[in-house]
Amino acid sequence: MWNDWLFVPGDLEAPERFFPNPALVTDGRVTMLLADNRKSPREHLEISAIDGPPEAHPGACLEAAFREARRRGQPHLHLMLPSHRAIEPFLAAGFRSWEQSLDVLLYAARTASLRLFQA
Asked: pTM for the full model?
């Protein structure tokens, strides 16, 4: 689990207590832990963990994450996607690469222009 460059083991009891203003969003298959970004808490909401089957489409869960970001007035939603998850659904939703450090690609999306999925 991550927030900016802070990493917390996912097997800790109640790991969300390590994240500022956490919120869980789920669609029944995919669950995301959202938290304010530690460096820029007024500008960036972080997807700090994604759980569920890797093949499950994250669209409905992303819609809930977008709504939460907008509700908080956050202009950006950040993502560091684990390598076992497909990037295509996130790109289709409006995420774009904005920083690369060695072999880590970071993606961000402006909450005002994110595209919602139709079920």
From this structure: 0.77
Please tell me the distance from the alpha carbon of residue 114 to that of residue 8, in angstroms, as a whole number.
Answer: 28
- Residue bearing tokens 């909401």: 45
What are the pLDDT digits (tens) for 26-35? 999 999 999 9
Residue 75, classified by CB atoms within 10 Å of its CB into exposed (0-12), middle (13-18) or buried (19+), is middle
SS (H, E, C) the chain: CEECCEECCCCCCCHHHHCCCCEEEECCCCEEEEEECCCCCCCEEEEEEEECCCCCCCHHHHHHHHHHHHHCCCCEEEECCCCCCCCHHHHHCCCEEEEEECCEEEEEEEHHHCCCCCC
**Which residues on adjacent β-strands are paired with residue 104?**
101
